[in-house]
Amino acid sequence: MDSRADSPQVSHSKRRSNAETVEASGARAMLRHFLASLAYRTQKALRGAPSGFGEFRIASDVRNPRELVKHMTSVLGYARTFFVGGEYWPDSLPTLDEEVARFHTVLQSLSEHFNTGDFSNMAPERFLQGPLSDAMSHVGQLAMLRRLFQAPVPPENFIMADIRAGNVSSHQPDSVSPDEFWHTPAGPQPVPDNRR
User: Fold this and answer.
1) How far apart, in Å, are the Cα atoms of 41 and each of 8, 155, 178?
2) DSSP labels for 5-38?
3) Which of 46, 103, 132, 182 could make an S-S bridge to 189, C-beta 3.0–4.6 Å?
4) CA 57, CA 96: separation in Å to the nearest integer?
5) Which CATH class is domain 25-195?
6) Across the 196 residues of the chain, what is the mean pLDDT of every consecutive 10-residue run?
């Protein structure tokens, strides 16, 4: 479902309540950490992708990786409009690398708004249930497309990942706790050293 659905009207008293809740709940830190996790997992899904992956299309009506990243940028740009107003409808860029660079630029901007912005137009929970969850679901699609492209993403324990709220850039750390085995329907398979 597209995150661009009309947003519910927010009353003045509800806006004040949202702002008070944000400060009291630690929501700013949680949202910024979610964006950092999104940056980490996106880079994990794209790191080491073979040439041609950006245009890999499994069916005519399914987005390719470049289009997925553009869509992720679009839903995050939509989230940002609740702080800056207006609309956000980005044009397509010609390469996956360009789409990824723009994605991280929008992530950085949204992270800054989550850190200091006014949440009177949308409660933190709605950001999480809408555009942020939408974007994270597309990271899973990128990882699935890597496997279908015969270049699977190496597994790791994400609980141990070195994710920091201030880092939403494309420069993400390597895995701290890579898995030694792929868990496949055929049973555990060793992960080659160069894939960890």
Assistant:
1) 30, 11, 14
2) SPPPP--HHHHHHHHHHHHHHTHHHHHHHHHHHH
3) 182
4) 13
5) mainly alpha
6) 47 59 77 98 96 97 98 98 96 98 98 95 96 98 96 92 96 89 73 58
